[in-house]
């Protein structure tokens, strides 16, 4: 009697049947540790700059100081574009490991830089390395988590940014009580790089993404990756064959600007650019701004720590809303709140240190909720062969904004607070309009594989 061949199982269905379990929680912890470490690397220059300026004789607001703030972001711009494209070509795991290794090496080198010029180079290279963790980590998380939990987990991953922010603020505060500023910054850079060691070791236990493997024609390896998920979750993988998607056409970064993807890519890039310009324009200069207002250094770090803690409820609410009302509505809602001035324009009216703290905390809450929703939304809008390339491109636009933001944010130090905050509020408003104009809600939908449906959904 001839056996009837079993119907092929779509990869989304296979992952959904394996369920949510220890594998996904472990992946969240591993990627989250790296994401928190990246937050520390990205934000530490705002805390370290007073000490670096003292060590190398840099004037407040000088071109050299601004370049040091921008160097990490410039490296991330190049890194996001390069590593995102490479991960779609050779697989997620190789880039997953390489970027963390390089970030650790270059981060430590910066702590020992004997001159401002060498420190600038080290910070650029650190940014180049960690720029690759964003597109790859979010693609990995999106591609391993069951559909019903995917949005929530992507917000959970982004929430580790707040933990990194809290950690670097607390570390900077502690070091300021132990060392003089001209010495404390070296300890800050060195200690911030060390979590990368743990992250690197933990990452060796994670297989490559089965989606990426399957799209690249490696069905056996894709099944092996799913088997590891099943074993960790104590579930069974069906012995039915996996449905192999049709061969993907050769894709390049230019593919992001063809067909239905063109509109989506441009609008997403504008959202990332606008949100990043406003966020980093405010928060990269906030420690220096508070210092210029007469706060002593320890009080500046304590204030930054409180603002970082305000981010956490923003993430918690976003994790609920992306599954309750959808990714797009959550993103736009948070951006509108930011633009209308629950932080920005109330900040202008704040006349006391307590009022400044409250209004800054409200802005921190709203902006980080927007980031959480954006990170959940973006990887679901690109097909698998272009997912990390797309994430790399839009995050590259955010890094471009980050490079520009210290120059714009310097308006805070020159007393032109109203001009700076008006510009930032306008960025959030444009980002909200672009987010709504995307016109697609991805909540509860399968990840697109090789093409987008004709209706753009």
TrEMBL record:
Stated name of the protein: Major facilitator superfamily transporter
Claim: Cell membrane is one of the keywords in the record: no
Species whose genome carries this gene: Deinococcus aerius
Cellular component GO terms held in the UniProt record: membrane
Signal peptide (from-to): none
Subcellular location: Membrane
Entry-linked CDD domains: MFS_SV2_like
Keywords annotated in UniProt: Membrane, Transmembrane, Transmembrane helix, Transport
UniProt entry tagged with the keyword Transport: yes
Main location: membrane
InterPro entries attached to this UniProt entry: MFS_dom, MFS_sugar_transport-like, MFS_trans_sf, Sugar_transporter_CS
Top-level taxon: Bacteria
Sequence intervals crossing the membrane: 27-47, 67-87, 94-114, 120-141, 153-175, 187-206, 266-287, 299-322, 329-348, 354-377, 389-413, 419-438
Residue stretches making up the Major facilitator superfamily (MFS) profile domain: 27-443
GO molecular function, one term: transmembrane transporter activity
Topology in membrane: Multi-pass membrane protein
């Amino acid at each position: 009697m001839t056996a009837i061949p079993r119907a092929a199982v779509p990869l989304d269905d296979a992952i959904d049947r394996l369920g949510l379990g220890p594998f996904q929680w472990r992946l969240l912890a591993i990627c989250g540790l790296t994401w928190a470490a990246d937050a520390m690397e990205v934000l530490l220059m705002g805390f370290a700059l007073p000490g670096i300026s003292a060590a190398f004789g840099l004037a407040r607001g000088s071109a050299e100081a601004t370049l040091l703030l921008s160097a990490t972001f410039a490296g991330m711009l190049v890194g996001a574009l390069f590593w995102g494209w490479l991960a779609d070509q050779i697989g997620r795991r190789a880039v997953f490991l390489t970027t963390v290794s390089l970030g650790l090496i270059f981060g430590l080198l910066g702590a020992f830089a004997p001159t401002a010029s060498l420190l600038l180079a080290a910070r650029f290279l650190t940014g180049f390395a960690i720029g690759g963790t964003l597109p790859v980590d979010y693609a990995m998380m999106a591609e391993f988590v069951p559909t019903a939990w995917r949005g929530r987990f992507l917000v959970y991953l982004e929430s580790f940014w707040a933990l990194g922010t809290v950690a670097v603020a607390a570390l900077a505060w502690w070091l300021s009580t132990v060392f003089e500023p001209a010495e404390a910054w070296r300890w800050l850079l060195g200690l911030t790089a060390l979590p990368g060691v743990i992250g690197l070791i933990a990452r060796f236990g994670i297989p490559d993404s089965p989606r990426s493997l399957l799209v690249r024609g490696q069905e056996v390896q894709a099944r092996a990756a799913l088997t590891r998920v099943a074993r960790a979750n104590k579930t069974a993988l069906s012995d039915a064959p996996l449905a192999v998607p049709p061969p993907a056409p050769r894709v390049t970064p230019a593919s992001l600007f063809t067909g239905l993807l063109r509109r989506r890519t441009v609008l997403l890039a504008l959202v990332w650019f606008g949100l990043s310009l406003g966020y980093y324009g405010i928060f990269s200069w906030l420690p220096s701004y508070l210092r210029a207002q007469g706060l002593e250094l320890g009080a500046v770090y304590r204030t930054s720590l409180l603002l970082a803690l305000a981010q956490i409820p923003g993430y918690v609410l976003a994790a609920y809303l992306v599954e309750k009302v959808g990714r797009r509505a959550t993103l736009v809602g948070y951006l509108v709140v930011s633009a209308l001035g629950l932080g920005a324009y109330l900040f202008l009216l704040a006349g006391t240190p307590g009022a400044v703290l409250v209004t800054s905390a409200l802005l921190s809450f709203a902006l980080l909720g927007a980031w959480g929703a954006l990170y959940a939304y973006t990887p679901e809008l690109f097909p698998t062969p272009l997912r990390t390339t797309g994430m790399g491109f839009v995050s590259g636009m955010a890094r471009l904004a980050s490079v520009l933001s210290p120059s714009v944010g310097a308006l805070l130090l020159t007393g032109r607070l109203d001009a700076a905050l008006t510009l930032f509020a306008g960025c959030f408003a444009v980002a909200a309009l672009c987010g709504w104009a995307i016109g697609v809600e991805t909540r509860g939908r399968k990840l697109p594989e090789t093409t987008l449906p004709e209706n753009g959904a």
